[in-house]
Amino acid sequence: GNRLMIQGDRHYDYDAFGNLIGERRGKGHQLVTEYRYDCQHRLIGVTQPNGKTASYRYDPFGRRVSKTVDGKTTEFFWQGDKLIAEHHADRHRSYLYEPDSFRPLALLEGFGPKETKPYHYQLDHLGTPQELTAPDGEIVWSAHYRAYGEITRLDVNKVENPLRFQGQYFDQESGLHHNRHRYYNPDVGRYLTPDPVKLSGGINTYQYVPNPTGWVDPLGLNSCPGGGGCKPQTSEGPPTQIAFVDEGHPSVPLVHGVDAETLNRTHSIEGKSSTKQVEKIARSMQNSGYDVNTPIDVVEHNEQRYIIDGHHRASAARRTHTPVTIQLIKNLAPYKSSFSSIQDVIEASNNVGLDRLDRPRR
Known about the structure:
mainly beta; 26 strands
C-alpha cells in the first residue's frame, strides 16, 4: 500500500518487497532509471538512462561506507549514526555537529591541518543548511528549498555542500538524499523503500514526515520535532557513562508524528470540563506543537491502534491537525480497572459513542 505509481510523466515500478526498482519517463517510457538492492533492501546500485552507473557499499551496521561513480570512489566515515568525514583522491572533508544533535555546525575541507579550510553552516529552524560561510563572512554556498527539501535555486556554489535535511546527504549522481537507513527523493517527498520499523514509523511507510516544515527524520526511521527533538546514537563521553548494565524494565517504544485520525477511541468525552481541557490543549498545540513528553498510551492489535489513555489530547490534535506522539503499551495490567484484555479494548472501541463537546469558544 501507499506506493506511488504515477507522477506526471514518471511511472514507478516496485519489487515484491515494495522497493522502488524502476522509474520510466519520456516518450514511450524510453528513459529508464534502475535501482538495485541487496538482501537487506539496501540500495547498492543505480543506472541512469544515459548508461552511467553508481554503486554503494555498507558496513555490518548498515552505514554507507563508500560509493563509486564513474570509476571514482568516495569513502565515508561515521561516529555512531552521524557522518563525520568523506574522502577520495582529490578531496577530504570533515563535518562537525552541534552537541548531541544532527544539526551541522562546520565543514572542514582539505588535507592536513595546514591546508584545511573551515566553513560554518547557517541553519533554519529545522537544522537545514541555508548558507555556508567562510571565516571572513563570505557566503560560499547558499540555496532555496521547497518544503520537502528539493533545491529550487542555488544562489552561490563556490564550495560544494551535500548536507540537506538533518541526517541527509545529497547524491548528485542520482538526485537522491542518503538518509542513513534509506534513500529519500526530495522531488516527490517520499522514500524509495518501506520503513524498516514497519508501522512504528507511521501508517504510510514511504512518508518522510507528516509536516516537513516542522518535523525531521535524521535516520530514515521515525520523525521527530525539528527543533532538536532527535538525538543521535553516538559513543561520545567517558566509557563509564557508555558501558553499563540496565537492570530496569525495557522502555516502552515511542512513535512520533502519528496522525490522530488513525487512532481508535475506546470511550467518549463530553461536558464543559472536557471542553475546557481540549481547548486548552489545542491552544498549546497551535502555539508549540505536540508535547512529546506526554505521549498518548496506545495498544496495537491487527495493525490497528487503540487509545488507552489520552483521549483529550487526541481530540485536540484532531482539531488542530497536529501530529502526536504515542506510547505503545505491551502490558494492560496498569489499566486493569478499565481493560482486562485486548478483547475488552476492541469491544469498547466498537461500542464507543460520539464525543459531546461544547462549541469551541471564539
